[in-house]
From TrEMBL:
A motif (RadA KNRFG motif) lies at residues 247-251. One of its GO terms (molecular function) is ATP binding. Residues 62-210 form the RecA family profile domain. Plays a role in repairing double-strand DNA breaks, probably involving stabilizing or processing branched DNA or blocked replication forks. DNA-dependent ATPase involved in processing of recombination intermediates, plays a role in repairing DNA breaks. Stimulates the branch migration of RecA-mediated strand transfer reactions, allowing the 3' invading strand to extend heteroduplex DNA faster. Binds ssDNA in the presence of ADP but not other nucleotides, has ATPase activity that is stimulated by ssDNA and various branched DNA structures, but inhibited by SSB. Does not have RecA's homology-searching function. Keywords: ATP-binding, DNA damage, DNA repair, DNA-binding, Hydrolase, Metal-binding, Nucleotide-binding, Stress response, Zinc, Zinc-finger. This is DNA repair protein RadA. It comes from Dehalobacter restrictus. Belongs to the RecA family. RadA subfamily. CDD domains: RadA_SMS_N. The middle region has homology to RecA with ATPase motifs including the RadA KNRFG motif, while the C-terminus is homologous to Lon protease.
C-alpha cells in the first residue's frame, strides 16, 4: 500500500517542489524547503455564474474608518482602520503585540462587540493581562481556540464585525493535514480568513511571529494577501516601541507611531523628536542633530560619533542605527575629497534612541559628527540636512520645509542645508546656511 503523498514547500515564498532541493527555485534562498503531507482536496460546491461589474457601477464607502483610540495608531493606518480590511501585525516575542491588540479591542468595543481569538493563551491568562491594564469591557469576547472553522462559526452566528487573531501561526484548518505554523497551514489559514473578511465586511487583525532574521514567519505570500503590514519594533529592555507600516493599501507606507510601554499598557508618545534627539542643550563634541523623514513625519535624531586611535589592523568600524556600508562610503569620501585618513582610527557611530535611520539626508549629520569628534569641537546649536555624493557634493533632499519647521520648533537657530534646496525654503526664524560640497561644510563648521 502506497504511503501518504508529500511535497516540499519553501517557507519563504511558498514555492512547491516534488523533491527536496538545497536552494529554492522561486526565491533563491538556501535550506528553506520543508516537507509536508498532501491530501486530495475535497470537491467544492459550484458558486454559480460570476459576472464582472463595470468600474463606474461599483459602490464605494469613502471615509469608512474605525478610530483606534490612539492618535499614533491612527497616523500609522492613515487616519484610522478601514472597515473590512485585513491587517497583519508582526514583531518579536514579548514586544507587546498582544497588549496592543487588547487595547485596540477595548476601544473598538465601545461601538459593537469585538471577538478576540487566542491560540496561545487561555481566557484566564488574557483576563489577568486585562486586569493589569485596567480593561474591563463586557463587549470584548474571548475565544481560546485555534480552530479556524470554530472562529468562522462564532463570527457568523453572532455577527462580529471586528476580529483579532493571536496568532496566525497557531491557527489550524482541519482540512490541511499539517501542523499549526507550517507553510500550508499559514497560507491556507490566511486565505480562509481573507475570504471571511472580504465576503462579510469584517475587519480582521492578525498577529504574526517573526523569524530570527526578522522576517515574518511563514510563506511570503502572507504579506501579499493582507491590506496592511505592520512591524512592531523596539528593544525589550527599553520602554519605547516603534510601530512601522511597511505596506498599506489605504494610506502612506513607512509611517511610524511611537509608543511607551508602561505597566498599564502602551501610551502614545506625542513628541517623538524630543525622545530621539535627547537633551540638545548639552552641546558636546562628536554629536550632531539630523532631521530625517519617517513617512510623512519629520524627526530630529541625535547622531553620536567617537573617533579614536586604533591598536588593531584593520581599524574597527562599529555602527548602531544606520547602514554599516553607508558609513564606510562616507568615510571614503572624507578621505578622498577632504584629505582626512581613517586607516589608523577606530570609528564608532550611534543613532541615539534606538531608531534605525536609512535615509541619505542624515549623511551631513554623520560626517559633521565624525569631524567634530576628530577635532574635539562642538557643532553648536545646529540642525544638519543633506545627502553626500561620492564626488563630495551635497545633494538635495525632499520635504525641506517640513524639516526646517521641525528644527525651528525645537529652538534650533542654524540649519545647514543643500544649496539646491535653499531657494525653496520659505520664511523662517532659522538661519539657513546653504552648502554646495564637503569643503564648504568643513570650512563653515571648523
Amino acid at each position: 500500500m502506497a504511503g501518504p503523498k508529500t511535497k516540499f514547500y519553501c517557507r519563504e515564498c511558498g514555492q512547491e517542489s516534488a523533491r527536496w532541493l538545497g536552494r529554492c527555485p522561486g526565491c533563491g534562498e538556501w535550506n528553506t524547503l520543508i516537507e509536508e503531507r498532501v491530501e486530495k482536496s475535497k470537491p467544492t460546491e459550484h458558486r454559480g455564474i460570476v459576472q464582472a461589474i463595470p468600474l463606474t457601477e461599483i459602490q464605494t464607502m469613502e471615509g469608512q474608518r474605525l478610530d483606534t483610540g490612539s492618535p499614533e495608531l491612527n497616523r500609522v493606518f492613515g487616519g484610522g482602520v478601514v472597515e473590512g480590511s485585513f491587517v497583519l501585525l508582526s514583531g518579536e516575542p514579548g514586544i507587546g503585540k498582544s497588549t496592543l491588540f487588547l487595547q485596540m479591542a477595548e476601544y473598538l468595543s465601545r461601538k459593537e462587540n469585538v471577538l478576540y481569538v487566542s491560540g496561545e493563551e487561555s481566557a484566564r491568562q488574557i483576563k489577568l493581562r486585562a486586569d493589569r491594564m485596567e480593561l474591563s469591557s463586557s463587549r470584548v469576547h474571548i475565544l481560546a481556540d485555534n480552530s479556524l472553522e470554530a472562529v468562522r462559526s462564532e463570527v457568523l452566528n453572532k455577527g462580529y464585525k471586528v476580529v483579532f487573531i493571536d496568532s496566525i501561526q497557531t491557527m489550524l484548518l482541519e482540512d490541511v493535514q499539517s501542523a499549526p505554523g507550517s507553510v500550508s497551514q499559514v497560507r491556507e489559514g490566511a486565505s480562509f480568513l481573507l475570504k471571511l473578511a472580504k465576503e462579510n465586511e469584517i475587519t480582521v487583525f492578525l498577529a504574526g511571529h517573526i523569524t530570527k532574521e526578522g522576517a515574518i514567519a511563514g510563506p511570503r505570500v502572507l504579506e501579499h494577501m493582507v491590506d496592511t503590514v505592520l512591524y512592531f519594533e523596539g528593544d525589550q529592555h527599553h520602554i519605547f516601541r516603534l510601530l512601522r507600516a511597511v505596506k498599506n493599501r489605504f494610506g502612506p507606507a513607512n509611517e511610524i507611531g511611537v509608543f511607551e510601554m508602561r505597566g498599564c499598557g502602551l501610551a502614545d508618545v506625542t513628541n517623538p523628536s524630543m525622545f530621539f534627539m535627547g537633551d540638545h542643550t548639552q552641546v558636546s563634541a562628536g554629536s550632531g542633530v539630523a532631521v530625517v523623514m519617517e513617512g510623512t513625519r519629520p524627526l530630529l535624531v541625535e547622531v553620536q560619533a567617537l573617533v579614536t586611535s586604533s591598536i588593531f589592523a584593520p581599524p574597527r568600524r562599529t555602527v548602531n542605527g544606520m547602514d554599516y556600508h553607508r558609513l564606510l562610503m562616507l568615510l571614503a569620501v572624507l578621505d578622498k575629497r577632504a584629505g582626512y585618513a581613517f586607516g589608523t582610527r577606530d570609528v564608532f557611530v550611534n543613532i541615539a534612541g534606538g531608531l534605525d535611520v536609512d535615509e541619505p539626508a542624515a549623511d551631513l549629520a554623520v560626517i559633521a559628527s565624525v569631524m567634530s569628534g576628530i577635532k574635539d569641537q562642538p557643532l553648536g546649536n545646529m540642525a544638519l540636512i543633506g545627502e553626500l555624493g561620492l564626488t563630495g557634493e551635497i545633494r538635495g533632499v525632499s520635504h525641506i520645509e517640513q524639516r526646517i519647521r521641525e528644527a525651528e520648533k525645537f529652538g534650533f537657530q542654524n540649519c545647514l542645508v543643500p544649496k539646491v534646496n535653499a531657494d525653496s525654503i520659505g520664511k523662517t526664524d532659522c538661519r539657513i546656511i546653504p552648502v554646495k560640497n564637503i569643503e564648504e561644510v568643513l570650512d563653515f563648521l571648523f
